[in-house]
Amino acid sequence: PGGGSDGTDLVVGQLSDEAFASSLASALASKGFCVIDLALEDGLAEKARTEADALRAEDRFYQPPALIADGLLGPEGSARIAELAAPSPGGGGAGAGATLDDVDTMISSIGVS
Q1: How far apart are CA 68 and CA 29, in angstroms?
Q2: Is 37 helix (H, G, I), strand (E, B) or coil?
Q3: If DSSP codes are grouped into helix, strand and coil, which group holds residue 64?
Q4: Residue pair 9/31 in contact by the 8 Å Cβ criterion
Q5: How many Å apart are CA 19 and CA 23, to the nearest integer?
Q6: Among 32, 50, 98, 105, fewest CB within 10 Å belongs to which?
């Protein structure tokens, strides 16, 4: 329940917080991961991808130390990372990575209510 037709397990906004949490826990328990569709506004994913491409062009991605990678998403999920400027108070921003920061905030808020 709450999954998309494209292989996602859950789509943000389709279930109550309780049902979402239950489905998330179930997916994590059964297969060790959960694919979540953030239901991003039109164009937001493309804008975030463009920002990531700009960071790559500026050579801002680097390989973190093994201990850092293990604490993030493991060596495969954190093979290359980039640091973004701290978000401005009040959210949003105009600097490099502002959309990536907005998406990060959305991801970080999943399961927190």
Answers
A1: 25
A2: strand
A3: coil
A4: no
A5: 6
A6: 32
Residue 73 and residue 84 in contact, taking contact as beta carbons nearer than 8 Å: no
- Cα–Cα distance between 57 and 82 in angstroms, integer? 12
Question: Tokens in use for 85?
Answer: 């400027």
Picking from 47, 43, 62, the residue whose alpha carbon sits closest to that of residue 96 is 47
The torsion angles phi and psi of 37, rounded to 5 degrees, stand at -90, 115
- In tens digits, the chain (113 residues) has pLDDT values of 556 567 899 999 899 989 999 999 999 999 999 999 999 999 999 999 999 999 999 999 999 998 888 888 888 888 999 988 776 665 555 566 789 988 988 888 886 75
Token reading at 23: 């489905």
